[in-house]
Automatic annotation (TrEMBL):
Mg(2+) binds at residues 276, 338-339. The keyword Disulfide bond does not apply. Gene3D superfamilies: 3.40.50.2020, Glutamine Phosphoribosylpyrophosphate, subunit 1, domain 1. It catalyses: 5-phospho-beta-D-ribosylamine + L-glutamate + diphosphate = 5-phospho-alpha-D-ribose 1-diphosphate + L-glutamine + H2O. Keywords: 4Fe-4S, Glutamine amidotransferase, Glycosyltransferase, Iron, Iron-sulfur, Magnesium, Metal-binding, Purine biosynthesis, Transferase. This is Amidophosphoribosyltransferase.
């Protein structure tokens, strides 16, 4: 058994040109997953098309645009298993249901020998539906036993689409309209870029059902505390998105401002690591009065190395990921800004490139706390052995990376910058906001089989 954990992108459309909008929405969520893409739609039953790679590689645009269904859900995937197969690509479906899912069911292993937690969700819901239970009842039953993070869209054989967000609200999910079409998306930026209007966030614990005629019904299970993933603000989400009403861009600006105020460095220039670190670097530059320079040039074809499925693939991406503007860095003291450091592969490579280009000093400042613990809510931190900060202090990390110094934000500084306390900080603190207190050793053994 191999566990698949995902921080992916989901999109759904009800209305004319449904599949076209879902296809375009997935392209705008491509940053959330680059390994596979798929779309399920209704046409004489539930049908699914999917493939490996980026959206335009995985799905034939000409074929997609010929599909006339008014009901569709879609998915872009980032996995952490070290393998990518078409069988594991989403959406997953049977004759009754199709599911596109973003998150991780932390206790899925308690319910049988499933290959993926998505497979578990599909099987669990299908059993209730086959027994004659209403789909909303089935979802509530699932929410009662499932532990972990799940934002998902579901298409059933009655031409209904449902949007579900777990009671803790770990992952974002938004409802909107494009013309007369009702849409759901992992991020509101995709809806807005397609010319649509955002209606509202799906609430933690909420189940929204859209009937074939467009009538919207909402139900909700009790939700006592919210714990939206801090990394949605720090790294994953597009800077032009809002999550639960909080601007990702402005959060990143404030991360940089607090970083400069509380963790200063004597330097000549501020250099961001593209792409998500740019607003953090802008904030740092504004607060410190040190000029910002775009000395690192990210190649257009480069993928996000953090979400590559194996260490070998991550390293191969890094080899061609950045170019250096030598005239900008030569002889300069640099404050190098990154949003986070997980394994250290990217940062070590960048520091080597900057040294080779003549940088005099390199002081790394990180717009997040030290990542010390695994994540069981859908991010690629499955093992403490992979985390550079799991058992090292800042001086030790700086030495390994080849930096003159390195400093991180504290958890309280991060919360202040983002502007909300209701965040999941498990990877920084080791405190997991799950229903049960699973022993860390047990979870690591399960998630790394």
């Amino acid at each position: 058994m191999m566990k698949i954990k995902e921080n992916c992108g989901i999109f759904a459309t009800i209305g004319e040109n449904s599949v076209k909008y879902t296809y375009e929405g997935l392209k705008l969520l491509q940053h959330r997953g680059q390994e596979s893409a798929g779309i399920s739609y209704v046409e004489d039953g539930i049908k699914t098309i999917k493939g490996l790679g980026l959206v335009e590689e995985a799905l034939n645009e000409r074929e997609v645009l010929q599909i006339k269904s008014k009901f569709s859900i879609g998915h872009v995937r980032y996995s952490t298993t070290g393998k990518t197969t078409l069988q594991e690509a989403q959406p997953l479906n049977n004759e009754k249901l199709s599911i596109a899912f973003n998150g991780t069911i932390a206790n899925y292993f308690e319910f049988g020998n499933y290959s993926t937690d998505t497979e578990f969700i599909l099987d669990f819901l299908s059993k209730d539906v086959k027994e004659g239970k209403d789909i909303v009842y089935a979802i509530k039953h699932f929410m009662d036993v499932a532990d972990g993070a799940y934002s998902m869209v579901i298409l059933d054989d009655k031409n209904r689409i449902l949007a579900v967000r777990d009671p803790k609200g770990f992952r974002p999910l938004v409802m909107g309209k494009i013309g007369e079409n009702i849409v759901f998306s992992s991020e509101d930026s995709a809806i807005k870029q397609l010319g649509g209007n955002v209606i509202r966030d799906v609430l933690p614990g909420e189940i929204i059902l859209v009937n074939p005629d467009g009538k919207i019904l909402s139900d909700k299970v009790p939700s006592t505390s919210f714990h939206t993933c801090a990394f949605e603000y720090i790294y994953f989400s597009r800077a032009d998105s809002k999550i639960d009403g909080v601007s990702v861009y402005m959060s990143r600006i404030r991360l940089g401002e607090i970083l400069a105020k509380n963790h200063p460095a004597k330097a000549d220039i501020v250099v961001p690591v593209p792409e998500s670190s740019r607003p953090i670097a802008i904030g740092y530059s504004k607060e410190s009065k040190i000029p910002l320079e775009e000395a690192l040039i990210r190649t257009i074809v480069s993928k996000r190395s953090f979400i590559m499925p194996t260490n070998d693939k991550r390293k191969s991406v890094l080899e061609e990921k950045f170019g250096i503007v030598e005239d900008v860095v030569k002889g300069k003291r640099i404050v190098l800004i990154d949003d986070s450091i997980v394994r250290g592969n990217t940062m070590k490579r960048i520091i080597t490139l900057l040294r080779n280009s003549g940088a005099e000093e390199i002081h790394v400042r990180v717009g997040s706390p030290m990542i010390k613990y695994p994540c069981y809510m859908g991010i690629d931190f499955p093992s403490r052995s992979e985390l550079i900060a799991s058992n090292k202090n800042e001086d030790e990390i700086a030495k390994i990376l080849g930096a003159d110094s390195i400093e991180y934000l504290t958890v309280d500084e991060m919360k202040k910058a983002i502007g909300r306390d209701s965040l999941c900080t498990a990877c920084f603190t080791g405190i997991y906001p799950l229903k049960r207190n699973y022993p860390l050793q047990v979870m690591e053994s399960v998630f790394n089989r």
